[in-house]
Design a protein that fits this description.
The structure holds two protein chains of two kinds. Chain A is an all-beta fold. Chain A has no helices and eleven strands. Helix content of chain B is 0%, strand content 56%. In chain B, the strands form two sheets. In chain B, strands 2, 4, 5, 9, 10 and 11 form a six-stranded mixed sheet that branches. In chain B, strands 1-3-8-7-6 form a five-stranded antiparallel sheet, with no helix packed on it. Classes of the chains: A mainly beta, B mainly beta.
Chain lengths: 115, 112
């Protein structure tokens, strides 16, 4: 089954404790992206990647890191989480977007609470 | 730069009534337009999209949207609401590059 998986689905942590949220897709997609969803703000892009070893900042990259060492994986790293990073996080993937109008496939989400 | 405005963060309709969710966009080039739906505790999934060609686009679950360039709109409609349509709906715009912008979402409530 074609899918995007994220782990963990739920995470409670404390300020300053490094964490990683994994994302994996099995559709051989070049493009992968991380979003955060907050009430009243919709989805905001954190980082995206056009291919292996190619990453770029989205609209709200502060406090986050990403890496793309393999095509299928795109982990999101919070080196020193803070309470304002409490949010619902989605990973998404698609074919290379320069084809135009590519559909993004979303993971199920990771709900993060930083105390 | 492209942007998306969804009118109404919450919309309530009676079961069987017309659903109309409004989306206006701004783009400097012919846009690609999307509607995504998010059911409770799930990720987003594509409902429909406009790329080129016919301006009336049909999607899954009986939804459709019409691209109106003169009005810079891409409103989502469904003739008869069903309880299972209760969800959050996101309009999105892309200019065919690596950037896609999502609206803030409209939560659709279906009244019995």
């Amino acid at each position: 089954e074609a899918q995007v998986t994220q782990n963990p689905r739920y995470l409670i942590t404390v300020t300053g404790k490094k964490l990683t949220v994994t994302c994996s897709q099995n559709m051989n997609h070049e493009y992968m992206s991380w979003y955060r969803q907050d009430p009243g703000l919709g989805l905001r892009q954190i980082y995206y990647s056009m291919n292996v070893e190619v990453t770029d900042k989205g609209d709200v990259p502060e406090g986050y890191k990403v890496s793309r060492k393999e095509k299928r994986n795109f982990p999101l790293i919070l080196e020193s989480p803070s309470p304002n990073q409490t949010s619902l996080y989605f990973c998404a993937s698609s074919l290379y977007p320069r084809q135009g109008g590519e559909t993004q496939y979303f993971g199920p989400g990771t709900r993060l609470l930083v105390l | 730069a492209q942007s998306v405005t969804q009118l109404g963060s919450h919309v309530s309709v009676s079961e069987g009534a017309l659903v109309l969710l409004r989306c206006n966009y701004s783009s400097s080039v012919p846009p690609y337009l999307f509607w995504y739906v998010q059911y409770p505790n799930q990720g987003l999934q594509l409902l429909l999209k406009y790329t080129t060609g016919a301006t009336l686009v049909k999607g899954i679950n009986g939804f459709e949207a019409e691209f109106k360039k003169s009005e810079t709109s891409f409103h989502l409609t469904k003739p008869s609401a069903h309880m299972s349509d209760a969800a959050e709906y996101f309009c999105a715009v892309s200019e065919g590059d690596d950037k896609i912008i999502f609206g803030k979402g409209t939560r659709l409530h279906i009244l019995p």
